[in-house]
Amino acid sequence: MARVKQLLVVLSCLALNSRFRELVDHNRSLAFSGHWTKRRELDSRLAHKLIESAEAFVFDLDGVIWIGGFLVEGVQETLEDLRGHGKSVIFATNNAMRTRSEVASRLKSLGLDWVMESDVFNSANAVARLLEARGISKDRSIYIVGEAGLRDEVQALGYRTQGGPDDAGKSLKDIPTALERIDPSSFGAVVCGLDQHLNYYKLALASSLVRNGVPLFASNDDLFGQLGPGKHQWPGAGSVLAAVAAAAGRRPPLADATAGKPSLEFAKLIEHSLDIPARKMVMVGDRLDTDIAFGNNAGMQTLLVLSGVTSRAELHRAQGNWVPDYVAASVASLGAAQQ
Ligand SMILES: [Mg+2]
C-alpha cells in the first residue's frame, strides 16, 4: 500500500511538473509575442507610471485630439494636467495640406489657447527641412505636387517653388509648352504631398523632372487615410508619390527621401527641437502603421488610443513595430491617472 502511495505521489509530481513546463512555455510565447510586455490596458496605475517616466507627450491629431472638427472629450483637461506636471505637449501630424501655424490656430480655436506654432510638427515642414539636410541648393526651384501648406512651408525655408496650387487649373493642352520651357537642371527637387487638386499636368511635369534626374522627396508615404465614422479610405500622400514615381518609371524605393511618420528623420527633428531624447517621449496615436510604428522605431513609449481608426481586432492582429506598449480608449485615460 505504501508503495502504491509513493507511486501516486511520484506520478502527481511528474504531472505537475509537465503542467508547470507547459505554463512556462505558454507564458514565454505570450511575452515573446508582446501580449504581456506590450498592448497593456492603460489603467490609472500604469498611466501614472507612464506619466512619471516621460518628459514629453507627442500627440497625433485626427482621431486622437480631434474628430470631425471637435476636440475628443477630456482632451483639454488632460493636456492641461500634463503641462501642469511639467511635461512638454506637442503635436505631430502627417497632414501636409496646412502650415504649422494654421494647425496651431485651429487648435487654439478649439480651446487649446496655449498652443504655439513651435508645438506643431508636420510633414510639410519636415520635408522642407529634409531638403536642407540633404543639401538641396536654394538657388534651384522646388516643384510641388501638393497643397498650399506644403508650398508655404517649403518657401518659409527660403526655397523658390513652382507647381502646387499655381498649377491647379492646368490641363493636357498646357503640357507641351511647359515641357519645352522647363529646364530640369534649374530644379533641386520634386516634393510630393497629399494633393486634392492633382491633375495630369502636374503628373506630367513632376515625372518629367524626375525622369531627368531631379530628386524625388515625399512629405510622407501613407498610401491612404481614413475618414469619418465609416472609416472610408481615401488616397494619401503615398498614392500621389506612387503616381509620380510610376509615371517616371521608378521602382521602389519610390522616393529619394521621405519625411513624416514613421520616418526616423521626423523623430530626430522632434528630439532636436525639444532637446529631449526619444526614450523620454510617449507617442500617442490612433494609427498602427504611422503613429505606433513611428514611436516604436524611434525608441519612444507608445500608446494607442481607440478613439480613431484602429479597432481592437486590428490591434490584436498587429505584429512587430506596429504593436503599442499601451492601449486606452482615448486620451482622457491619461487624465484619469492624475485625479
Ligand atoms: Mg490619426
Automatic annotation (TrEMBL):
Pfam families: Hydrolase_6 (PF13344), Hydrolase_like (PF13242). InterPro entries: HAD-like_sf, HAD-SF_hydro_IIA, HAD_sf, PGP_euk. It comes from the Eukaryota. Keywords: Hydrolase. This is 4-nitrophenylphosphatase. Gene3D superfamilies: HAD superfamily/HAD-like. The keyword Ion transport does not apply.
